[in-house]
Each structure stands twice: as structure tokens, then as C-alpha cells.
Amino acid sequence: MKFFTWDIELPKECGEDGGKRTARADAYLLDWSEDGAEKTRPAVVICPGGGYRTLSPREGEPVAMQYLSMGYHVFVLHYSVAPERFPTALWQLALLTAQIRDNSRQWLVDPEKIVVSGFSAGGHLACSLGAFWNREFVYGPLRREKEEIRPNAMLLSYPVITSGPYCHKGSFEKLLGEEADNKEKRHLVSLEYQVGPHTPKTFVWHTATDDSVPARNSLLLAENLIKSGVNVELHIFPTGCHGLSLATEDTCKGLEKMVVPQCQSWITLAREWLKTI
């Protein structure tokens, strides 16, 4: 495996200080094959959660190792959080997606199989790219074509989606800052209203007992994806708190409630789903 990291700097069109709002991308590239020949592989881009306030390490590298074991190249995006505001993190994810395509030959990535995988607020970020990749306010300031930033699929874990009655209030306060009470801005970032036929196929899972980001977030998303004719796979597990990551001892941060054997199957379900991309 090859590992390297680089900085993602936004162009000046994203704001006068765009170049200073720097994200970091970690790349984990597989460099083996059974016959020793170079092999082009699909890629997964991971967006850890953290309420747009911080980033959870439990939803970064441990998950990357799982995707690597499935034969995927993996990129972990350490995107900007508060005090940076929408759409800074979205620009960073879009630019990373374009950069992966730019380097697809060198990195042996299939440019038509780039999956964005997000957790909690990182799920909101990943879904934002799926919802907004064809909007000029995203690709225009990046000096990119919309097809360059388009994700081919979304894999969302207990995502923040709605800014309505079932919202995770803190995520939207950090995402929008002083505009958190602006009705137009809140509607824009309430993603159940923004997805449509242009949104890529989606895998989403949640737990029914999540009392931080209610499962209605995933249900609202799935309902509108289905209405739009988008291929969607939805799993609601009966028990489990928010922020489970892999729901194993390796990612439980010493808390017994974070180990939920039934929820551990999400990664196995995702493995099968990824084969359909």
C-alpha cells in the first residue's frame, strides 16, 4: 500500500481568502494484484463526522482499512469546519473528487467509480456533493466542469440531512454560522429538498434509537430519492446510539454502548452494494 497526503487549496474565486482555507487529503492506494500487473480500482472518499465542529478520527482511518480490504483505493478528507461556513467544505470535497479524476491514470483509479462515504455531518457533506454537483455555485468558482466533480455513488452512515423539525441543530449552527436562522439558507442545505434524478445511487444506514440525529433524516432522504427514481438501499437497525462508526471494539472509544454487534453488519452490506457500482 502507498500512503501520502497533500493540501487542497481553494482558488481565489472561492473568496479572497480561499487559498488559505486548506483541507488535507490522505490517500491509501493499493499497489498489489494477484498476477503482479497494475490494476485499476474504484475509489472511496471518506468524510468523517463531527457536527461541522470537529472531525472524528474513529470515522476516518479505521473505516479506510475496511474499504482497503475490499480492494478499493481510499481517500480521507480532513475538511474545514467552523468557523468556516457553507460551502467551503463542499468546495473542498468537490475539488478533491476532481483531483482524483485528474490523477486517475497515475493512481490507477477508475474515474467512473468514485464513491463518497460520509458519517453524520460528514454524511451531510457527502450528500451535498451528490445534490449540488451540477450547480454552478459549486463547480464554477473551482474553475471545473460539473462532470469533473460528480460522485458516482454515495454511501451514507447516520447522515445529517434535514434542517427541519428532525434536524441536528448544532450541525446547522456550525455550518451556517450567523445565517443559521435564514430560511432560504436552511432550505438550501436541507438536502431532502435538493436531491433529484441527478443524484447518484445511494446506500444509507441509521439506527432507530439515534437520539442525536434522528433516523427520520435518512427516511426523508430515501423517500425523496425514491420519488426521483434514484436507486437507493436503506437499512434501519433497531438499536444503537449515534456515531457508531464500525460499531466494534476498535472504534468504540472505550464505551460499551458503541459496540453493537447487529450494526456491525452495515459494512458487510455495503461491501455487496459497492459491487453494483
Quick take:
The chain has an eight-stranded mixed β-sheet, with helices on both faces.
Can you describe this structure?
With 277 residues, the protein is an alpha/beta fold. The protein contains ten helices and eight strands. It has helices at 61-69, 88-102, 104-107, 121-132, 136-139, 146-149, 169-176, 183-188, 216-227, 266-274, and strands spanning 2-8, 23-29, 41-47, 73-78, 109-119, 153-157, 201-207, 232-237. It has an eight-stranded mixed sheet, with helices on both faces. Helix 2 (88-102) packs across helix 4. The chain is globular and about 55 Å long. It starts with a strand and ends with a helix. The relative contact order is 0.13.
The residue-averaged pLDDT reads: 96
Give the biggest sheet.
8 strands, mixed
Encode the helix/strand succession as letters. Answer: EEEHEHHEHHHEHHEHEH
Through-space gap between termini: 23 Å
How big is the Rg?
Answer: 17 Å
Structural class of the helices, strands and pairings?
A: alpha/beta
Number of strands: 8
Spans where pLDDT lies below 50 across 5 or more residues = none
Number of helices: 10
**Beta-strand percentage?**
15-25%
